[in-house]
Amino acid sequence: MIDSDFRLLLENVKKISESVPGAVFIGGVAVYLHASQKLERLAEASHDADMYIGLSDLTDLRDQEELTQNRRLNKQQFIKSGVGFGVYVEKNNALTIPYDEILVESKSLDGINVASLGHLLILNLDAAIDRAGSNKGQKDIRDIIRILLLAEASDVDLAKPFFNDEHRAFVASLARSPAYFSLADGNAMVAKQYRQAASSAVDQLTESDRSISTHRPKR
User: Fold this and answer.
1) What string of pLDDT tens digits covers the 219 residues of the chain?
2) CA angle (185 as vertex; 122, 134 as ends), nearest 5
3) Are 68 and 78 in contact (CB under 8 A)?
4) Which of 76, 128, 135, 152 suits a disulfide with 140, CB 3.0-4.6 Å?
5) 3-class SS letters over 80-129
6) Helix and strand tally (H, E) in the chain?
7) Crossing angle of helices 135-150 and 27-38, rounded to 10°
8) CATH: 3.90.1150.10, 3.30.460.10, 3.30.420.10, 3.40.50.720. Which one for 1-115?
9) Residue 102, exposed/middle/buried by CB under 10 A (0-12, 13-18, 19+)?
10) Who's near 141: CB < 8 A, 6+ residues apart?
11) Is 34:150 a contact under the CB 8 Å cutoff?
């Protein structure tokens, strides 16, 4: 059961997805929608929303919302119904994966365009590394584990070309994370099953040395 605030957020996300067809949602909202489709008990509400748009979509969005620049995070943002929306624009951001690749592999879930699980894994790993130790960083970790539990072989293949040494070290550090117990509602047996399933996904991810870089742009 989702609360009224998150329901309103999803309604606004859907309206934006309909009015700006090139918008692809990333971050917590996208992970929530994937989880709600595949394994609903893993879904966790988000308090804000991030999207990735093409240069051609920027004018359409500006006609609807008042955008401000966040130079520190290389993104634009706006407030809608009291909720913050982050906007990453094609060729004007520090995200690891180019917009056109995100777009071509995106999926429509409940009428909302979202990034694939494979691409979300890379974006969430980048965010978690940048925000390590913060409250948002803890949410990033839970979302990474969710993605590992939900990912299929095709998702892993999408992630592999962008998976680097920094990512590899981070996922290795999650092996004993208490987040598994949180996701399992404190059930040790279920937490163990989650660890094993996530470990299997990590093994698939690291079985081939196809990473393209040991470094990435900083936000």
Assistant:
1) 467 889 999 999 999 999 999 999 999 999 999 999 998 899 999 989 999 999 999 999 999 999 999 988 899 999 998 899 999 999 999 999 999 999 999 999 999 999 999 999 999 999 999 988 888 889 999 999 999 999 999 999 999 999 999 999 999 999 889 999 999 999 999 999 999 999 999 999 988 544 433 334 333
2) 45
3) yes
4) 128
5) ECCEEEEEEECCCCCCCCCHHHHHHCCEEECCEEECCHHHHHHHHHHHHH
6) 10, 7
7) 40
8) 3.30.460.10
9) buried
10) 128, 174, 177, 179
11) yes
Structure tokens at 214: 């040991």
Single-letter code of the amino acid located at 15: K
